[in-house]
Specification:
By secondary structure, the chain is α+β, with helices and mostly antiparallel strands. It has 3 helices and 3 strands; from the N terminus they run H-E-E-H-E-H. The two termini are 43 Å apart.
C-alpha cells in the first residue's frame, strides 16, 4: 500500500537484485582483501603449522655481547667469520590453539562432543513440562 491507503504503482520501487553504490564498494573491498589473502595463503598456513609444532631459531652472540637472530645461512657464515662467540638454539613451545586451527582448516571442524555424566552416559537436557489444564 502506498501513501494514504492507495495501492502502489505496479513496477515502482527498487528492482529485485539492485545493489546500492556502498554495497558494491564493500564487495570490491572484500574481493581485494580476499585476493591478498589468497596470494599469501600457503605462507600463512606454513607459518601456522610451524607455530603449532613449535618454532626453532638460532641466536648469534656478537663479540660486543649483543644478540641477533639468524635468518639465513649467509648471516650465520658471516657471524662465524666475524668471530661470533655463541650459538644458541631456542625452541618456542608448541601452540595448541594453532594446532587446532590448522587441523580444522585441513580436515574440517570436528563435531562438538556431547556432554557426559559421571557414569559415562550422555546427559539428556530436555525437560518435559506438563500443562495443568
Amino acid at each position: 500500500m502506498g501513501a494514504k491507503g492507495q495501492p502502489r504503482t505496479p513496477g515502482s520501487g527498487i528492482k529485485k537484485g539492485y545493489k546500492y553504490a556502498h554495497t558494491l564498494e564493500r564487495e570490491r573491498s572484500k574481493h581485494a582483501i580476499e585476493r591478498v589473502i589468497f596470494e599469501h595463503a600457503v605462507r600463512m598456513t606454513l607459518a601456522q603449522i610451524d607455530e603449532s609444532m613449535g618454532v626453532e631459531y638460532l641466536v648469534i652472540r656478537r663479540p660486543d655481547g649483543s644478540f641477533v637472530r639468524a635468518t639465513d645461512q649467509a648471516q650465520i657464515d658471516a657471524a662465524i667469520a666475524a668471530g661470533g662467540e655463541l650459538f644458541t638454539l631456542y625452541r618456542k613451545a608448541p601452540n595448541p590453539a594453532a594446532h587446532t586451527a590448522v587441523m580444522a582448516r585441513g580436515f574440517g571442524k570436528p563435531p562438538e562432543a556431547e556432554p557426559l555424566s559421571p557414569t559415562g552416559a550422555t546427559i539428556d537436557y530436555r525437560i518435559a513440562i506438563k500443562k495443568p489444564w
